[in-house]
Amino acid sequence: MSAxxxxxxxxxxxxTVDELTxxxxxxxIGCWQQCRLKFYFRYVLSIPKRATPAFHIGKVVHTILQAxxxxxxxxxxxxSERFQGLFxxxxxxxxxxxxxxxxxxxxxxxxxxxxxxxxxxAETPIKANERPEAVEVPMEAELPDGLPKLVGIIxxxxxxxxxxxxxxxxxxxxxxxxxxxxxVLELEPEARAKALxxxxxxxxxxxxxxxxxxxxx
Length: 217
What we know:
The protein is an alpha/beta fold. Helix content is 48%, strand content 13%. Strands 1, 2, 3 and 4 form a 4-stranded mixed beta sheet that branches. Strands 5-6 form a two-stranded parallel sheet. The radius of gyration is 20 Å and the shape is flat.
């Protein structure tokens, strides 16, 4: 004889239909297209995603890039020691919160991640004295036909309204994928342009290739 056992994980309160349809983001759309069951677990049941080394690294890298962009926006000089100190502090704090299993490779992964940051700072096409127009900007766009409002956050708006989204990846940027991304982002060009106009009073939106930062071989 067998019996179904309710796991504590599934006692977590899920999201209602009204909550799920109030807004939509690019990541949620991507999850839906990738796997409906994954979407159900993550967004309907609200089962928390287990922190992984890759997720941890991505969060720490984002913190450093945000601080770097804010420093340039404030006109502050680049200070490698300051950013490395912030990197070490953020790494320790996030590790204490999530207790990620590194299988004895944490030191190596941390050193490789900082090396990746140094490589990016040395080779980025963004000049050290280039002042951003905006950093970490919330955006939203009204979609037609009663669709949920599109929301998101822009990592960086460069001069002229050029939008940059930072990603950490082990893959080289692919032209076919970039073209698909362009098609997705241009599905509703008028709504996108209106959202950007609210942020920086831009007359049109721009699509900039993603800056994929790779660790040296």
